[in-house]
Amino acid sequence: MRRWQGDSIYFGGDYNPEQWPEETWSEDVDLMRQAGVNLVSVGIFSWALLEPTQGRFEFGWLDRVLDLLHDGGIQVDLATATASPPPWLTRAHPETLPRRADGAILWPGGRQAYCPSSPVFRERSLELVRAVASRYAEHPAVVMWHISNELGCHNAHCYCDVSAEAFRGWLRERYGDLNRLNDAWGTAFWSQRYGDWAEINPPRAALAFANPTQQLDFLRFSSDELRAQLRAEREVLKTLVGQPITTNFMIGMGVKHMDYQSWASDVDLVSNDHYLTAADPQAHLGLALAADHTRGVAGGDPWLLMEHSTSAVQWQPRNVAKLPGQLRRNSLAHVARGADGVLFFQWRASRAGAEKFHSALVPHAGPDTKVFREVCQLGADLKALAEVRGSRVDADVAILFDWEAWWGVELDSHPSVDVTYADRLNALYGSLWRAGVTADIVHPSTDLSGYRLVLVPTLYLVRDADVDALHAYVAAGGTAAITYFSGIVDADDHIRLGGYPGAFRELLGVRTEEFFPLREGEQVHLDDGSTADVWTEWVHPDGAEVLASYTDGPLPGVPALTRHRVGDGAAWYVGTRLDEPATDRLVARLLAEAGVRPAVSAPSGVEVVRRRDGDRTWLFAINHTDTEVRLPAHGVELLTGGHCAGELALPAGEVAVVREDRT
Ligand code: GAL
Q1: 639: exposed, middle or buried (C-beta count within 10 Å: 0-12, 13-18, 19+)?
Q2: Does residue 259's CB lie within 6 angstroms of at least one atom of ligand 1?
Q3: Residues 291, 292, 294, 299: is their CA dihedral positive or negative?
Q4: Ligand 1 pocket check for 359: Cβ under 6 Å
Q5: What is the C-alpha separation between 42 and 139, in angstroms, rounded?
Q6: Following DSSP, what letter does each residue of 285-326 receive, concatenated?
Q7: Ligand 1: centre distance to CA 198 (Å)
Q8: What residues act catalytically?
Q9: What's the rounded Cα separation, in Å, for the pair 248 and 259?
Q10: Residues 6+ apart with CB under 8 A from 136
Q11: Which of 307, 310, 322 maximizes ligand 1 atoms within 8 Å of its Cβ, making it the mutation to test the pocket?
Q12: Is 355 close to ligand 1, i.e. is its CB under 6 Å away?
């Protein structure tokens, strides 16, 4: 790992000066200085300008931009510029274009139009990386390298012949011999047995459900192919540059196809892009979850928010603008949850192109705007918070998350389409958020010993080693809660026989003989007053105590919620989809049993998170309500310079950060 943090919290955004006449550039730098911007990402979509024809590079304009930025004291996160191939490349090599599962070619004209397995794309893109890195390795403005951009955002899956051949190579590597592949894919079913590697294809459009393990392996392969591009660019960079290297992930926006947990070791710092679902009034919960997940992927280290928006985006059906104060709350919520930098897409709102209605730090209307004033305010805030950088976030709760489990659980031909991976994750996370409790969202293989409570939403696919580790964690005194449709299959998507929830039967002390998914809109009730829907199952206790049973629905009298003592701890099973109040009550019981308390006890709608560095702690409090609230706090209020002795008064919509005096 190369050290990446500077003297302050990073603040800035994507800077695309190539969209503007040079006269604008010096005004840009002046405004950046005025706003307190200290880092901009440059060159992300510049391939066609940097290399207008193959092998002919034009760096003059970028030289001038970087020099100007440096003179203005603005640091640069320089892109490898490989995000989108130039038209000359696809014209010369149409075989680099990706194909959909139905064979349709995806043409250039948008962005990212390349097949991730294309050797031609790989070769040409690495030539560009080499040229850019050689030229700017020593440029004093450059403090960070930005590989590609949101790898896989549009081209995560390609079904072309080149991809098919690469897929076969990947499968040979994974299985060694064809018999093992046939076993893993269960090809005795539907006459699918393969006698030659050449018979295997990606799961292209077919008449009936494609083989599930073929689908799963294709998802693994596709994530690995994009990762290979990341690694190849990184290898080139590593030989030429000394600055830290990153690429922007898209964690927490429903982006499913890249297993970022496996990619994290390929970057020096984890950076993430996050955009709100603007129409959702609870969007700040999704933001918090994304930030906690990014921190989990980063192994708890500080991370960088590479992109978010100052106000509306342009790609949602209705692009709701941020209300006054929301930009600040959003940005500082990321910092509360471990971001040591807050960057945006983009510096100046474009006047042409598909993103011209996307907000920016400098809007079309110029600097005399709410947005730019809030940007300047944020710049000042982040300056005042410089001391928190490098600190970590306190979390006593872990939520287990695995991209492979996500891929597995959402394959077709399952008991109910209403079982999705995000559903229970969001539900449990929401209850924790409302309780003021911060969670790390981590991979099942993470060392869990430091957590008081571990929540396991819908872990359909799970490895034996991770099951054993969770068992050991509980036996040693931990508390765990697992929700339905977990532990069902192994890594090959084969059912774990003997009763559900397969891998977790022993830990949970239950055995389910049959699933009884509910009809659309159907509800069931439990004898503890809870309401649930979507899912029920015929659970038999096998050592577990029954905490609640159904009073109606297909399984009256059958247990819905159980608890099993294991060693010094306990494992809870939630066999149905509890509604929000019932989930809140369940989580409150789990927190009480595990002895987990909120960062401070805060009124509802107030987000509280604590960052810590040794003995020093900072309390972040974000008031999402429209009334002033009071919460307990002692220390110096970094954003106002005030002091709170016992109580913090936090006006509606405001944010406070207190350097705590806890003696
Ligand atoms: C991101 C992307 C940016 C810009 C932004 C708009 O996905 O990295 O280049 O397109 O979205 O919200």
Answers
A1: middle
A2: no
A3: positive
A4: no
A5: 13
A6: HHHHHHHHHHHHHTTTS-EEEEE--SS--SSSSS-PPPPTTH
A7: 38
A8: 150, 307
A9: 13
A10: 62, 66, 78, 142
A11: 307
A12: yes
Ligand 1 neighbourhood includes 319 CB (under 6 angstroms)? no
Tokens matching residue 185:
């894919």
Please give the helix or strand (H or E) that residue 548 lies within, else none: strand 545-549
Pocket test for ligand 1, best of 345, 350, 357 (most atoms within 8 A of CB): 345
Closest residue to atom 2 of ligand 1, CA basis = 150
Please name which of 64, 66, 83 lies closest in space to residue 75, comparing C-alpha atoms. 66
pTM over 0.85: yes
pLDDT at 387: 97
Q: According to the model, what pLDDT value does residue 200 have?
A: 98
Question: What is the SS3 assignment for 519?
Answer: coil
Strands (E), 121-181: 142-146
| HSE-CB for 182 with a 13 A CA cutoff | 14
Cβ of 127 closer than 6 Å to ligand 1, yes or no, is: no
Residue with tokens 């018999």: 179
Q: Whose CA is nearest to atom 12 of ligand 1?
A: 313
Burial of 592 (0-12, 13-18, 19+ CB in 10 A): exposed
* CA distances (Å), origin 512, targets 150, 573, 578: 42, 11, 18
Ligand 1 pocket residue status of 51, Cβ below 6 Å? no
Which atom of ligand 1 lies closest to the CA of 315?
12
Q: What is the C-alpha separation between 62 and 243, in angstroms, rounded?
A: 18
Count of positions (residues) in the chain: 663
- 612 is written with which tokens? 């810590």
Q: From the CA of 242, how far away is ligand 1's center (Å)?
A: 27
Q: What is the DSSP letter of 517?
A: P
Give the pLDDT confidence score for residue 278 in this predicted structure.
Answer: 75
Ligand 1 lined by 307 (C-beta under 6 Å): yes
How many Cβ atoms from other residues are within 10 Å of residue 453's Cβ?
23
Closest Cα to atom 5 of ligand 1: 345
Report yes or no: 656 and 610 within 8 Å, Cβ to Cβ. no
φ/ψ of residue 479, rounded to 5: -115, 135
Look at residues 237, 333, 273 and name the one whose alpha carbon lies nearest to residue 149.
273
Specify whether the CB–CB gap between 50 and 16 falls below 8 A.
Answer: no
Along the chain (663 residues), what's the average pLDDT of each consecutive run of 10 residues?
Answer: 82 98 97 98 98 98 98 98 98 98 97 98 98 98 98 98 98 98 98 98 97 98 98 98 98 96 98 91 95 98 98 95 96 98 98 98 98 98 97 98 98 98 98 98 98 98 98 98 98 98 98 98 98 98 98 98 98 98 98 97 96 97 97 96 94 98 78
E strands, 75-141, where? 75-79
Question: Phi/psi of residue 243, each to 5°?
Answer: -75, 160
Q: Is 377 helix (H, G, I), strand (E, B) or coil?
A: helix
Q: Which residue's C-alpha comes closest to atom 11 of ligand 1? A: 345
Q: What does the pLDDT read at residue 101?
A: 98
Q: Which residue, 559, 561, 579, 581, is CA-closest to 571?
A: 561
Supply the pLDDT for residue 1: 59
Q: Where are the beta strands (DSSP E) in 421-567?
A: 439-442, 453-456, 479-483, 510-515, 523-525, 531-533, 537-541, 545-549, 559-566
